Amino acid sequence: MNQPRDNWSSSAGLVLAATGSAIGLGNLWKFPFITWQNNGGAFVLVYLICIVAVGLPIMMAELLIGRRSQKSAVGALKEAAGPWWGIVGGWGVLAGFILLSYYTVIAGWSLYYFAQSIGWSFGGYPAGMAAGDLFNEQVGNAGLQLMLSLGFSIATIAVVYFGVSKGIERIARIFLPILFGILLLLLVSALGMSGSGEALRFIFRANFGELETSGVLEALGHSFFTLSLGMGAMITYGSYISRKQSIVKASGAIVALDTLIALVATVIMFSVIFSVAGMSDQVSGSPVGMLFISLPELFYTAVPFGVVLGPLFYVLVALAALTSTISLLEVVSSYMIDERRVPRHKATILCGAAIFVFTIFAALSFTGTPFLATLEIFAGKIGWFSTVDHFVSNWMLPTGGFAITLAAGWFMTRNATERELLDGTEPRWFRYGAWRFFIRWVAPLAVGAIIVSVILGRDFS
Ligand code: PFF
Fold first, then answer.
1. Domain-by-domain residue ranges, the chain?
2. Distance between CA atoms of 120 and 96, rounded to whole angstroms?
3. pLDDT (tens digit per residue) in 395-419
4. Atom 10 in ligand 1: which residue has the minimum CA distance?
5. Does the structural domain 11-455 have CATH classification 1.20.1740.10?
6. Which residue owns the Cα nearest ligand 1 atom 7?
7. pTM
8. At a CB cut-off of 8 Å and minimum separation 6, what does 261 contact?
């Protein structure tokens, strides 16, 4: 190999970078919304169970597969389970490619709302402006959409270009503490609002009568997306771990931080919504609605210190999205670097540019562009954006995740996985036997249930 392999500089570097990948639009945009849709309490509890029983074991499996081979998704899976498993890695690389192509578009919206909110903070929120109209105007403006997503793509490429320790890890080290700080400020402000008590009850008081089977499957499906599992991102990040770093501890920290942030974001949003009379009936019927339609106005009418916190909130969304997009680009670029021997700088630019071509399709899905706005492959999913989102969330991540559990639980030998997990770095509480049981039985059965329900027509996008 002509390029020496870059590594995380320390365990903290790995944890921050992987947590950055995990914390993203899924935490700030999707989790609060599905919690809303599924009536809170019981759904949140089931989600926590899915995170521990399915997410955590698969996180460990992905990191160990990566660390063992020191190769990115395709090479790592081949080495772990046999030559055919390269296909599963390739499936993950493709998922990363597609997911990045449309994730960037939503990330671009956060830049737009950041710029707008700075204007509102100084000039006042325009009286009588319907936030829904503003949203429709911006998504319908082709030039604006292309500029925003181009800006975001360039930022993503610029980070990955500098490599693992000097690019990805450095950005995570700077941005994650900022992100935690902003969330804390928002949380303090939200808890001071009159609706916070109702929000906490809604989120933490479980009433199983309100939970439907679809909610259980949704919680399970989301635990994959939010932890960046099922497509080799964590295999790739795992491949930059040195032998001295503990997989078990790192996995625990990543999963705990991701879950904490999702809950905090939900408490913040619901406290705001419950504080405004009648707002809870008006919350628009989509995640887009909550983040980009309901909240902007509320920052300027209801939230204490909203003029400061409004712009900060949209910076937060942008930072969280960026630390996720860089992991997606890393999955694709590292394939070119490791398997095709393309130098990193060239691989990053080539992959970034190729993905951007598809970002254009996603960005123009809302502008009335023929074909892109009207395509309907999956019933009810109209337009390019919804089609690819449906395909990735419903088909690619669950099937990829299922295959990874089989690779780690059934195709790798007990010896091989035991050597990775019981290497002297694991904490005292860790039981290898428990992990093996979850990865062989619980995780594949749970993920299998998602796949079966998708085949039967359920929708997780
Ligand atoms: N975990 C990210 C989120 O919650 O927004 C989404 C994601 C990023 C999924 C990177 C997969 C991935 F490889």
1. 11-455
2. 36
3. 999 999 999 999 999 999 999 999 9
4. 228
5. yes
6. 228
7. 0.96
8. 23, 27, 180, 183
